[in-house]
Amino acid sequence: MKRIGLLTSGGDCQALNPAMRGVVKSLMFSGEQIEIYGFLNGYQGLIYGNYRMLDVSDFSGILTRGGTILGSSRTPFKTIREPDEKGLDKVESMKHNYFKLNLDCLVILGGNGSHKTANLLREEGLNIVTLPKTIDNDLWGTDMTFGFQSAVDIATNVIDNIHTTADSHGRVFIVEVMGHKVGYLTLNAGMASGADIILIPEIPYDIDKVIEAIEQRKKRGSKFTIIAVAEGAISKKDAKLSKKEYKKKLESSPFPSVSYEIAEEIKKKTGQEVRVTVPGHMQRGGSPCPYDRVFASRLGAEAGKLILKGHYGFMVGYRNREIVKVPLEEVAGKLKKVEPDSSIVKEAKMLGISFGD
Amino acid sequence: MKRIGLLTSGGDCQALNPAMRGVVKSLMFSGEQIEIYGFLNGYQGLIYGNYRMLDVSDFSGILTRGGTILGSSRTPFKTIREPDEKGLDKVESMKHNYFKLNLDCLVILGGNGSHKTANLLREEGLNIVTLPKTIDNDLWGTDMTFGFQSAVDIATNVIDNIHTTADSHGRVFIVEVMGHKVGYLTLNAGMASGADIILIPEIPYDIDKVIEAIEQRKKRGSKFTIIAVAEGAISKKDAKLSKKEYKKKLESSPFPSVSYEIAEEIKKKTGQEVRVTVPGHMQRGGSPCPYDRVFASRLGAEAGKLILKGHYGFMVGYRNREIVKVPLEEVAGKLKKVEPDSSIVKEAKMLGISFGD
Amino acid sequence: MKRIGLLTSGGDCQALNPAMRGVVKSLMFSGEQIEIYGFLNGYQGLIYGNYRMLDVSDFSGILTRGGTILGSSRTPFKTIREPDEKGLDKVESMKHNYFKLNLDCLVILGGNGSHKTANLLREEGLNIVTLPKTIDNDLWGTDMTFGFQSAVDIATNVIDNIHTTADSHGRVFIVEVMGHKVGYLTLNAGMASGADIILIPEIPYDIDKVIEAIEQRKKRGSKFTIIAVAEGAISKKDAKLSKKEYKKKLESSPFPSVSYEIAEEIKKKTGQEVRVTVPGHMQRGGSPCPYDRVFASRLGAEAGKLILKGHYGFMVGYRNREIVKVPLEEVAGKLKKVEPDSSIVKEAKMLGISFGD
Amino acid sequence: MKRIGLLTSGGDCQALNPAMRGVVKSLMFSGEQIEIYGFLNGYQGLIYGNYRMLDVSDFSGILTRGGTILGSSRTPFKTIREPDEKGLDKVESMKHNYFKLNLDCLVILGGNGSHKTANLLREEGLNIVTLPKTIDNDLWGTDMTFGFQSAVDIATNVIDNIHTTADSHGRVFIVEVMGHKVGYLTLNAGMASGADIILIPEIPYDIDKVIEAIEQRKKRGSKFTIIAVAEGAISKKDAKLSKKEYKKKLESSPFPSVSYEIAEEIKKKTGQEVRVTVPGHMQRGGSPCPYDRVFASRLGAEAGKLILKGHYGFMVGYRNREIVKVPLEEVAGKLKKVEPDSSIVKEAKMLGISFGD
Questions:
Q1: Rounded distance, CA C156 to CA C162, Å?
Q2: What are B's interface residues with A at a Cβ cutoff of 8 A?
Q3: Are D139 and D239 within one domain?
Q4: Considering the domain boundaries, does residue D356 fall inside one?
Q5: What are the mean pLDDT values of chain D's consecutive 10-residue runs (357 residues total)?
Q6: What's A168's domain CATH number?
Q7: Residue B222 banded pLDDT, cuts 50, 70, 90
Q8: Residue at C176 is within a domain
């Protein structure tokens, strides 16, 4: 008999449900008796003891469904050790609820921030297994995260649509792709959709180089240019600022995001019409793509196996095409980023894509 | 032997290519010899004599392709009679090019503005046949325009995706749907995707009614609310302003669009998090949906028939499930709008959708 | 207070759930108290008293979901008056269950066969409202049925995919589209996807004309030909047989369906490779398309209105772009078919599509 | 200056165009002058000197297009050394055309069979670079082939659709997925869509085990069962036959494919209704998925690099998330298969999926 807690934390993404289904199905088919406690809205549910008893049948038919049946929320790690507005000690409260329910294990589906908290709970003596969830693919210790390929599919589809209309009109189009710190999503969606220029946080851009790339396209006879811009794209000039200075700059900016600033600069310097599209949260929604469904199901199954064996303190990750377990202390607090001289970036450049660098 | 000019004008949309393919195929299969002159980038091509001779094979394989093989541009009707920056008389120039090429007919694919110019050219003695192109479905004289259903599909898909993520997080989400003057697209996409509140230009909203609808949803246990807002949504207060005053207000607004203003008001009055998504030009792009492909092909075929018979001066439209010809003078300058007391609006209200009125 | 029965009958299709959601939501928002009895698996549930009490929340979130939450089954009308294997009088049993539950009304979502039974129940004194469900669009009394446009989208997508591969290889491809008696689905999917030849039950084909069309394409330089064949396509020769003779012929045929027979004849007479694709039940599945979601929701809302007013004995249909009520006795037993000389068929021919006639 | 030949061979698949675009773009942007000879319809074009001079612009806009702009055909390796019907020595003819055009290199996009011929041409002194194309993912020496993920997406979508309808009706549904020798496609599409039973060539099935799995589902309350069957699925009994005997058995079978035979056995032994869906060539068509577009573009770029360096005799493959070059002699004649005891199969079983073994 195993008593399992489940929670989904952070910005939601597309294969949370298949991953949880994988955990529960693999436990069920192992013949082990299980009791499942679903904490609602991420760590909030664990802090405030807000949970729902779940039945195996709750996980039936959710393989294709986006979102999470448990709800999610962001609980900032920075303040996790501070008491809440009513004076409640959040970490103690989580421990209390875990031990009160006499759980064998807590399965946490989360991204970067959530893994810091997961590791903290491990240090506090909880049995933790985590699954790497994020559309950003920026988790250390795993080649891939679920949600990523689904988000690539959506962002690609957005740029594909813009492509048709750009082709007819002859303009510069900017599509703002999610990703504040890491550019995998923008890089892949940009390559998949034939974007001409890709701007990502890891490779600061020079606006003059961006404009040069637009002008060169015109010379080669192309009426339009499509730029995939990550939310966190940054100019070479701004990259030299301190974190504090840059934050200040952003806050005092008249533009809702960096895309609008880039658009304005291009308009000024080239006189061309520029249109900005912001698909936003759309990139987190919809049915998980088949790749993510298989991937999340496999991760879930292997998480089930770890639980059966009582191997705790791991993230179930993916390396060199095999599902592996990665110690939580190795994962927490680290970010996986696009290497500016990695093969995929070089290949993108070989295909004529400019990074504005 | 028929010498045909073709041009696509205004904001592009999804079934321009199938419609042109329909015209050309129906002429070809009639056995009539044809010469096709494709004017590039809308009326610009006609004004400046910028065209390409097209072959029947140019129309092969374009049934599924978005955009327009001819390019498009907006040429404002208001200034059509004013000379261009070099002093060129635009109307005379269009007539000149038409008659110089000895065309039998000019086929114009366009929306509201383009139909005014089309009718002007008719009055000037040109043989004109038009096809009703617009994602707004706001053309007078036809029940349906091509591009509309494809845009509904895309906007619906955007809201569907937001739905999954909204469901997980518990927030107010605003999706800004195209449509400055007319709300068909927002109304249909909103109904198709289960939006809770729909705000369209034809039904000015009261922000307190909008907030009341959000609060009622909360009382019924719903964590989130989705609002589909047309670009041209307007508050009851603003609807009382003169056109001039309202324009001034918009220009001095700190918000990029009305959606952001609504978002701000909801945040202030309810304290809830609000997210805005702007799919923008994405709604004009991508492959035409099957409905539009059939519809545009049928319109194109009937346009071919009019040309063969020498019946000029008509838009090919759709009424009561039949393709009909509508005199251009009836179409030009009129706008088809959502009637606030039409059955579809009443039915939407019966389903619990609030229009904030 | 209204006590409502709901049942979905016949082959399932894509917007059954949105339609039921429409009925329930419109009753709920009217302020009327309601009790909902969902009969399981079509008329079977009514015959055997197999039902589930449903709550308004059961209809939440099903707008985008294919299938039917009630299950469906085919109950042949021909034997409806015959007792079942245990001697149960089926009609009496349905009446018994209806009156025992003290229902105010029974809402039936069904196609052609189901409407005969619905009308029979009306004659027997039950209060009936029906909704026109079928991917075939063959119901008398309504311009459109829900499920149809979703099925067109799927069948079109199948032929689109075949198009790419056909283009690369150079073969004859046959895609078998659903429709035993009526060709609307094949006609629309064929036109939407640019099929070269369309064979439907209403227009018997001559195999030599089909081959002639293939040969003419070759002469014009086309490497491949795509034929959309309705399940019920019939040759001119076979169309002269009596119903009995034709049935016998089909039963003794070595081919699983008419597509394979046509394929064989083309192979023999032209020596060309022919491939058959049978998407089958796929055409009934998946999420309803936005068109169907709006349409089914509107029909559902108007059905709710009829129930509130106590107007029974009607199918809620669609005519000239308005939702209307159609007396059941007018609908039952009649089939709406593609007219061989209707505008859409003529337009298809104008576009060069052969019907093999 | 480089003179490059291009050919696409074998059954077509979804990312042939992006891969060729990648090769050409990377050569173009390297600054090298290039001349491109596109051989039509696979090796046929090389044998008969049937080619088209291509321009860089021919590769513009094809990133999203399925099929191949060069056409394809199967040229059986077994008879490649036999003269054609007119006595032409095929191998000599290919060499002749290669050297006559003074090519620097021939880029071959193909699957298993095509790689045998590619290696033969290498042995004959031609400079060869190949790209791994196949929806089967069965090429030795690479973790992944392009076309595979796109086909998984399509087959998954088919089963998703069947799922909705299965859910409503309560039947056994068989979906026949492409793959005569290798089951990767069926395995992945089956896992992605939640198939209950997966039958692949590498794991011979016992029909009694299949039926047992159906019965167990019934006991657990499931009305329906979905079986994903690879074209080359084989029973344990038949797996004991010699190749010759099995071929004979298949030829004399009354069933068009093994799916129909399995359907018949289930019907007989359980009395349940069984429906077979055969998506067929649909799985090779349509726009390449974003994953394949990025992947094929990267492979193409690296092929361009090999050509620039004059490194010939390699397939450009993918191992451990890096693009690598694999000597052709290692690839030719070997098949990569699903290992029955690989992790993914084990994980599928942990999720409750039966392989009928």
A1: 10
A2: 8, 12, 14, 16, 41, 65-68, 71-73, 154, 157-158, 160-170, 173, 223, 256, 260, 275-286
A3: no
A4: no
A5: 95 94 96 95 96 93 93 88 94 97 97 95 98 97 97 97 81 95 98 98 98 93 93 96 94 87 94 90 95 98 97 96 94 95 97 97
A6: 3.40.50.460
A7: confident
A8: yes
Q: Which amino acid is at B157?
A: N
CA dihedral C3, C8, C14, C17 (to 10 degrees): 20
Does the distance separating the beta carbons of A304 and D350 come in below 8 Å?
yes
Length of chain B: 357
Instruction: Tell me which amino acid residue C68 is.
Output: T
Query: In this structure, are B189 and B122 located in the same domain?
Result: no
Instruction: Count Cβ atoms below 10 Å from residue C252 Cβ, excluding itself.
Output: 7
* Rounded distance between C-alpha atoms, residue D325 and residue D314, angstroms: 6
Residue range A28-35: mean pLDDT, rounded? 94
* Cβ-nearest to A275 among B8, B166, B281: B281
B356 class by beta-carbon count within 10 Å (0-12 exposed, 13-18 middle, 19+ buried): buried
Element (H, E) at A197: strand A197-199
Residue the block writes with tokens 């015109």:
A218
Minimal C-alpha gap between C15 and chain D (Å):
11
Is there a single domain that holds both residue A260 and residue A237? yes
State the pairing for strand pair A34-39/A2-8: parallel
The helix (H) or strand (E) run that includes residue B50 is none
Average pLDDT of A297-321?
96
Which residues in chain B are contacts of C149 at CB distance < 8 A? 290-291
- Chain D environment of A152 (Cβ under 8 Å): 290-291, 294
Is residue A132 over pLDDT 80?
yes
Chain A residues whose beta carbon lies within 8 Å of the beta carbon of residue D185: none
Same domain, B171 and B111: no
Cβ(C12)–Cβ(C45) below 8 Å: no
Q: With cut-offs at 50, 70 and 90, classify the pLDDT of residue A90.
A: very high
Domain match, A89 and A202 both: no
Residues 6+ apart with CB under 8 A from B201: B179, B180, B181, B182, B183, B230, B232, B233, B234, B337
Catalytic residue among C12, C58, C104, C136: C136
pLDDT confidence bin for B253, thresholds 50/70/90: confident
pTM given for the model = 0.95
Q: Which domain holds residue C206?
A: 151-284+340-350
CA C37 to chain centre: 25
C131 and C15, same structural domain?
yes
- The mean-pLDDT minimum among A240-249, C125-134, D218-227 falls in D218-227
Looking at the domain assignment, is residue C355 inside a domain?
A: no
- Cβ of A170 within 8 Å of Cβ of B66? The answer is no
Q: Is the distance from CB of C128 to CB of C325 less than 8 angstroms?
A: no
What percent helix, strand, coil does chain C show, rounded to 5? 45, 20, 35
Residue type, D143: D
What is the C-alpha to C-alpha distance for residues C308 and A353, in angstroms, rounded to an integer? Answer: 62
Closest residue in B to C163 (Cα) is: B61
pLDDT of residue D321: 85
Phi, then psi, of A241 in degrees rounded to 5:
-70, 155
How many folded domains does chain C comprise?
A: 2
Active-site residue flag, B136: yes
Q: What is the CA radius of gyration of chain B?
A: 22
Is pLDDT at C222 greater than 90 in this prediction?
no
Burial A317-347 (b: 16+ CB within 10 A, else e): bbeeeebebbebeebbeeebbbeeeebbbbb
pLDDT at A167 over 80: no
Rg, C-alpha atoms of chain C: 22
Q: Please tell me the distance from the alpha carbon of residue D195 to that of residue D210, in angstroms, as a whole number.
A: 13
Beta carbons within 10 angstroms of residue C242's beta carbon: 8
Residue B130, helix vs strand vs coil: strand
Instruction: Identify the CATH number of the domain in which residue D77 sits.
Output: 3.40.50.450
Q: Which residues pair with A315 in a beta bridge?
A: A130, A326
